[in-house]
């Protein structure tokens, strides 16, 4: 069985403990590779390699750094098929989705930040005869980067590319649930000639490897994407150390459908927003909030559309919904479906584990896409992040009420509005408490825009120049004339 390795100081190396964890293909429910069960000694080795590489990397010209990142992007493009297969096997997502979205977006991350760093500029402020101020923005040193399992390579590269572009070196930890694309990325970096130690990848468990990065006294900055629960833990550990932190966390996003929306577009878009990637995208619209005049008609059309989704073997081209990422996540989804029934909800479709779609996937973790109605906005199912193919539809009367429901959770990551009224679109977009909002669309991403959440969905912004600002420290210099 394949043993994945850490990537430290430009080499692929085993964990110092010699211990490994099982890596499971969720579509088959079977172990198919072994992941290093690393610990703080591996993180220390990675930190030392990153520190040794820092002076050379941070003093390279931006053009030279950009060429290195472009070479990594080219390497990803050249291995697109390998990476897509790996992502689908690790995660259970349809291969077609990984091929079309996840891996090309990971490539784009490197390509975008290779260009963005050449456009990044410092500010200056003229004070007339008194003098002037200018702001230096310099890298901080070794960045600690921690990412989740749902968009494994995309979110991992979303942190690595800007951190390196800005001149930092990095110690990065992918999710132990989906390590294979990160391992292939280390091969790509070696093939692309990335200088040793610039990027170090340490595999393993959150409480061991993640926490060793977070608590490392000499890693000054952390970029984390994952659950709000782990984000809280990270602030407890790193807050008192005054580390610079960006936390991208959970969501319970509202998909607001107004009666004046283009009905078909709203139904199709809302189903996509709820069930893409098995509902395992932080930006999924799991709360479908629908204005009452069209509520019954919408529920019927939504359920019909959900019933037409093909739950299948992720490797088959016509599969819409693949396997749930892990047994633990499947059990969590089923727990919330039971809770919905206890809270008085009606399961309109789905609501149960499905047998594997073919002999290959007989032991896989499959769940029927589930639609719930009849629950009030404040019940637990409509308040807590489930992170699976489970959508709840909630009616509302006035625009004010719709916005109040959208804002009525502890989260504030994203939102979607379906309406044909231009003024309403602007009003509601401004009123919904979230870091990003789509009007008559969903998941359209422009790498130049800031990305992040408010409330318990996050602190800090990544994406575009915001990411380069995050991964550099500003210092103001005043010059007296
Ligand atoms: P998770 O919080 O369990 O794990 C995320 C990462 O943190 C993993 O690499 C994990 O090993 C590590 N980790 C766990 N404990 C740690 C600790 N004590 N110290 C340091 N690191 C630790 O999240 P997950 O289950 O992998 O991913 C799903 C969550 O991620 C959902 O809540 C989802 O909303 C969120 N997410 C958010 C965004 C966003 O941009 N806001 C994007 C994708 C996913």
Short description:
By secondary structure, this protein is α/β, with parallel strands linked by helices. The chain has helices spanning 40-59, 62-78, 80-91, 95-119, 152-165, 180-192, 206-214, 228-238, 263-275, 295-307, 327-342, 399-407, 422-431, 464-470, and strands at 2-3, 6-8, 11-13, 20-25, 30-36, 124-126, 131-139, 142-146, 169-173, 199-201, 221-225, 244-248, 254-257, 287-291, 346-349, 353-354, 366-367, 370-373, 390-396, 414-418, 436-439, 458-459, 472-480. It has 14 helices and 23 strands.
Write up this protein:
- With 481 residues, this protein is α/β, with parallel strands linked by helices.
- It folds into two domains: 2-249 and 457-480, 3-Layer(aba) Sandwich (Aldehyde Dehydrogenase, Chain A, domain 1), CATH 3.40.605.10; 254-446, Aldehyde Dehydrogenase, Chain A, domain 2 (3-Layer(aba) Sandwich).
- It is 39% helix and 22% strand.
- The strands form six sheets. It has a seven-stranded mixed β-sheet, with helices on both faces. The protein has a six-stranded mixed β-sheet with strand order 10-9-8-11-12-22, sandwiched between helices.
- The longest helix has 25 residues, at 95-119.
- The protein is globular, with a radius of gyration of 23 Å.
- The chain starts with a strand and ends with a strand.
Radius of gyration: 23 Å
Shape: globular
Characterize the largest beta sheet: strand count, sense, and whether it forms a barrel: 7 strands, mixed
Assess the beta-strand content as a share of residues. Answer: 15-25%
Provide the residue-averaged pLDDT: 98
Strand order of the largest sheet: 15-18-19-14-13-20-21
The residue fraction in helices comes out at: 25-40%
Can you tell me the CATH class of the largest domain? Alpha Beta
């Amino acid at each position: 069985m394949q043993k994945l390795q850490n990537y430290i100081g430009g080499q692929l190396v085993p964990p110092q403990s010699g211990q490994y964890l099982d890596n499971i293909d969720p579509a088959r429910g079977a172990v198919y590779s072994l992941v290093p069960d690393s610990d703080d000694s591996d993180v220390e080795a990675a930190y030392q390699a990153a520190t040794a590489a820092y002076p050379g990397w941070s003093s390279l010209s931006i053009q030279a750094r950009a060429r290195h990142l472009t070479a990594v992007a080219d390497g990803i493009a050249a291995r697109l098929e390998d990476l897509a297969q790996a992502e689908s096997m690790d995660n259970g997502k349809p291969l077609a989705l990984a091929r079309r979205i996840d891996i090309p977006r990971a490539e784009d991350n490197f390509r975008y930040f290779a260009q963005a760093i050449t456009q990044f500029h410092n500010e200056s402020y003229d004070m007339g005869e008194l003098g002037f101020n200018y702001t230096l923005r310099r890298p901080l040193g070794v960045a600690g980067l921690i990412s989740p399992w749902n968009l494994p390579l995309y979110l991992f590269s979303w942190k690595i590319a800007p951190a390196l572009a800005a001149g930092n070196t990095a110690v990065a930890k992918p999710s132990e649930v989906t390590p294979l694309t990160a391992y292939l990325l280390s091969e790509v970096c070696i093939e692309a000639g990335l200088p040793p130690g610039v990027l170090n990848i340490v595999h393993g468990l959150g409480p061991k490897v993640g926490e060793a990065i977070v608590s490392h006294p000499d890693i000054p900055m952390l970029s984390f994407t994952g659950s709000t629960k782990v984000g809280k833990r990270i602030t407890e550990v790193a807050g008192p150390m005054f580390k610079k932190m960006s936390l991208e966390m959970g969501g319970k996003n509202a998909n607001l459908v107004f009666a004046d929306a283009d009905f078909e577009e709203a139904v199709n878009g809302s189903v996509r927003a709820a069930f893409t990637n098995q509902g395992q995208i932080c930006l999924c619209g799991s709360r479908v909030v629908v204005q009452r005049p069209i509520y019954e008609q919408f529920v019927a059309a939504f359920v019909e559309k959900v019933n037409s989704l093909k739950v299948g073997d992720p490797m088959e081209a016509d599969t819409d919904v693949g396997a749930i990422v892990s047994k633990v996540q499947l059990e969590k989804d089923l727990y919330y479906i039971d809770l919905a029934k206890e809270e008085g909800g009606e399961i309109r479709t789905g609501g149960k584990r499905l047998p594997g779609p073919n002999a290959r996937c007989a032991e896989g973790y499959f769940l029927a896409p589930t639609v719930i109605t009849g629950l009030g906005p404040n019940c637990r199912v409509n308040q807590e992040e489930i992170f699976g193919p489970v959508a709840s539809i909630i009616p509302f009367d006035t625009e004010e009420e719709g916005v109040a429901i959208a804002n009525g959770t502890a989260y504030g990551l994203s939102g979607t509005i379906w309406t044909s009224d231009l003024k309403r679109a602007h009003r509601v977009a401004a009123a919904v408490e979230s870091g990003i909002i789509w009007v008559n669309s969903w998941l359209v991403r422009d790498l130049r825009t800031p990305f992040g959440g408010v409330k318990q969905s996050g602190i800090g912004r990544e994406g575009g120049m915001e990411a380069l600002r995050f991964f550099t420290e500003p210092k103001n210099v005043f010059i007296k004339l």
